[in-house]
Please model this.
Amino acid sequence: MKHKEIRKKLLRYIDAELPQEERSEIQNHLQRCEQCRKDVERLSGAWNLSQPIKRAQPSPFLWNRISEQLAGKTQKTPLHKLELFIRHTARPALTAAVVILGLFIGIKVGHRLMTAELPSSQPADASIQLQGEFGLENFRVLSSGSLGVELAAFMDYENE
Amino acid sequence: MEESQLIEKIKGDDRTAFRTFYEIYKDMIYNVCYRMLNNKQDAEDATQDVFVKASRSIHKFRGDAKLSTWLYQIAVNTSLNYARRKKIVAWLSLDFLLGKEESLLDNPQTRPDLELEKNESEALVQQVIQSLPPRQRTAVILQRYEGLSYKEIATVMNTSLSAVESLLHHAKDNLTEKLTALLK
Model:
């Protein structure tokens, strides 16, 4: 067995729950490995209970609670009461809140989509705005640096 | 009074007999619930549930197993259900969002009872046992603290002997790993 496998089995070794073959293998390993020897010592100290095992006792009033519950007087435990509250009040309230929140979000998103402006497909151009102002929409505007400007300049030159 | 006589009297709705039954088994049930839940108040609530259930279902007890084994079964199932429900209630109360989760050792209510765990090592062992998966934890508690045999554990947990061996095998491997890291 490898060191890592042996380390996993130390508690079962301490409790004598391993087959004889594995016990012998671990005993041999412990003779060589200081780390595992120390771990066995620490584990034994923590794991082995001092005898007799101390028993706790419940509250002396527990019998009263039991006998009242059996007699039909409601003495449900606090966890029962909280469960009933969650089942009959908190859960329906939470469900209603989720539905209302969903409706609110849906209305808001829908409203935004309907009122959003579509982006312009043409860049804003001062010359286009002026064109509109002076009723020159039928005239195509040539942007500076375009081939059309060069061609128009050439044609002007030709006509001179 | 013999066990069979006591059971017959309880089935006949004899309250004095039920009180005797309670006095005989209350420490055993409370200790199992305490080891499973690691909290005094929860252990008392679970113990109350166990005795109420026992009273209402004693007519189903056929006597083919020991009365203590039958009670252990009720105690283990009640404690496991209690722990599960408490987790769900805690989640629904959104305690985790408000940072109300505490470690076992911070809250005096949940800290292992130092009367039972006289030394810190035993408190550490109890804490590590609490970190095991529920079925492994149950098997270890029944073996270590209640001294039940593998066969008795199998009856209490309603499973096979080989399943109990496997549970304890894995539980102790897990415990070894965690304890060796913590004890350094």
Notes: The mean pLDDT of chain A is 77. Helices of chain A lie at 3-8, 10-14, 20-32, 34-47, 62-70, 78-115, 126-133, 147-159.
